[in-house]
Amino acid sequence: EGKLHIKHELVDLSRAIDHVVDIVAPLAKKEVSIERVFDPRTPMVVADFSRMVQIMYNLLGNSLKFTKSGYVRVSVGPANPTGCSVLITVEDTGIGIPADKM
User: Fold this and answer.
1) pTM, full prediction
2) CA 56 to chain CA centroid, nearest Å
3) Which end of the chain, N or C, is less packed with Cβ atoms under 10 Å?
C-alpha cells in the first residue's frame, strides 16, 4: 500500500549481527556452529536497523535450516579499500543449490 517506512539511522553492523545470532542460535543443530567474522575497519552505515536485522535473520535462518553439520558463517567488512561501502556474506556447509537451479 506504499506505507513502508524506512528509517535512516546510523547502524553498527557488529551490534546487528550479534543481535541476529542471538535470535537464530536456538535454530542451530548441535552439530552446527555459528561463526561471526567482523572486520574492525567496517564503518557504521546509514540504514534501517530493523530491516537489516530482518534481512540477516532470513539469510542465517535459511542457512541453518539446510545445514546438518559444519558451520554457518556471517562475515562483515569493508567492500573496498576506501571503506565507503560494506560487504556482508553468509556462508555455510549445507546442501547448497544445484547448478541447474542457480
Assistant:
1) 0.85
2) 4
3) N
